[in-house]
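<amino_acid_chain>
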Amino acid sequence: MGSYAADAVAAEKQYGPGVTDTEIKIGQTVPYSGPASAFSSYGRVMTGYFQMLNEKGGINGRKVNLISRDNAFSPPKAIEQATSFNKERVGMLLPGIELTNSRENYAPYRSLRMAIFEKTSWKLLEE
């Protein structure tokens, strides 16, 4: 009977969207092209950071799968990508400046946890 109880507990283990026992899925949109492409270095830096983090074992043993997409510095394209991340069950979105410039831009995507970089640290955006 004990093994059935352990199986039931294991089957009940649930995490938020984009998180499994082995992976944390994060999305970001970056202006790799377009008029603000000079600012795309932060996307490459974040990609490198998560690669380094994964090489060191990830976060609590989970690898971080950072999905980075070009938004061409276009708010409509960034919003389209946020929608696709939502459909792909990405757990957190690190939006570029196209979505964080006003609460109205990211309001439809509150089902995604979003974080923005403010001054010197990451901050989760709350409702």
